Amino acid sequence: MANVKKLFSEKLSVANIGIENFQKTLLQQNIAVAQIDWQPPANGNVELVRLLDILSDERVEAANQEAFKRINDAEPLLVDVVYAKDVLPNMKRNTIGHAGPPLAWQDMCGPLQGAILGAIVYEELAETLEEAEQLVLDDKIDFRSNHSLGAVGPMTGMITYSMPLWKVENKTFGNVAYCTFNEGLGKVMRFGANGPDVIDRLKWLENELAPALKETLVSSGPIALKVIMAKALAMGDEMHQRNNGATSIIIRDLMPHIVKTQQNNKELHKITDFITGNDQFFLNIAMVAGKAMMDPVKDIKYSTVVTAMSRNGTNFGIKISGLGDQWFEAPVNQPEGLYFPGYSAEDANPDIGDSTIVETIGVGGFAMGSSPAVVRFVGASSVDEAAQYSKDMQLITVGLSPTLIIPPMNFTGTATGIDARKVVETGILPVINTGMAHKKPGIGQVGAGIVKAPYLCFEKAVKMIGESLD
């Protein structure tokens, strides 16, 4: 009884775990309180908790360590420029690769439909957007997910028969991956624009820039991309929304060979202007490096490591190493961030693009702590908040990269190897830096921001792999 009286008579210092309303009530009474964020594992879902217990199996741990090792052992090299028609499986003139998991035309968002119609005109299968849409409605167009083609593309992700592609080889494992060129800024097909100026630029990429860069890579030889990415992290890039440093480095590597191989001064000037005027030139290269690094991580029995994340503007999908090429999908989330003048959240389409492949290797949103300059551009409130995102990602990954380092965070490696188990257990969701497209086709980019992967994707994957081990 004396102890109870003492409790009510002395000044209290309280640690409150979980529900924030208790903290607010105590603060209103001028009681010192430390708030400890906590929630039950798997959001309190008893069946998921049981499956997570099964997935604590040593076979899963060993498989995830093998996945982590393969990611870190990867050596992606930029080796060539090729054309989709020559290298992608079953690629025909009416084949259109798009970002994210597969989906039907009627389920596609505005920018994706707009980009597809523009791509049909680009391939000269139709002269107008109206004719292009009729081809779609007549089932004359073969839609394919880019990942099924061994490739990736930003935002809408258009890959068609005639498009030039970067080719990256993973020297360690011998696999290859492909990605389109970055179109530059302004109205571009990746953001759903499809006007004549968009088509003309794509034709120039196909007919002028691609042959020049192919010759350039013959002259330069393979370019080690992980080295560039490591340097760029030290220069303030995170390799998703900010690629200024990486773009500068690869331009320095390429430019002497471009000058050496291009004899036409007028075309050389145009190429130079295009490359140096596009801060996101390296983004597509980072994406294909990520694809080449993650493909060897597929099909490791028992592994719960995420090998791909992608979105098509309607659904968000992930793939899990131990479950092969199966997509686990959920409705995609709406990014939060900053909008260009004249636009607002009412104009923006939900998240879209294959570019989330960079987060699977530990950069992009996972490396935001390396990129103070990107903080306000994507709507974060402070440098500390950006660093906290990177720290949070350490709680849902297998380990820290030994080569991709964040200098501002005391040279900590980036969080690498998303573990679906940890996402479900903690409720911490992978954070992604992203651009935002207008929800109507033909307009283009309206801003940039931060988005999180939907929890349901990971829940579905954990259920399937957990039940397989049960």
Describe it.
Helix content is 39%, strand content 21%. The protein has 16 helices and 19 strands. The termini are far apart. The chain has 3 domains: 11-37, no CATH class; 47-68 and 297-469, Alpha-Beta Complex (v583 fold); 76-288, Enterococcus faecalis V583 domain (Enterococcus faecalis V583 fold). The longest helix has 25 residues, at 196-220. Strands 6-9-8-3-10 form a 5-stranded mixed sheet. The protein is an alpha+beta fold and 470 residues long. Strand 11 (306-312) and strand 12 form a beta hairpin. The chain has helices spanning 2-9, 20-28, 46-54, 58-73, 84-87, 110-122, 129-137, 196-220, 225-234, 244-261, 265-276, 283-294, 357-360, 383-394, 420-426, 455-469; strands at residues 13-17, 32-36, 76-83, 95-98, 142-145, 151-152, 159-160, 164-170, 176-180, 223-224, 306-312, 315-320, 328-331, 336-339, 352-353, 397-406, 412-418, 431-437, 445-452.
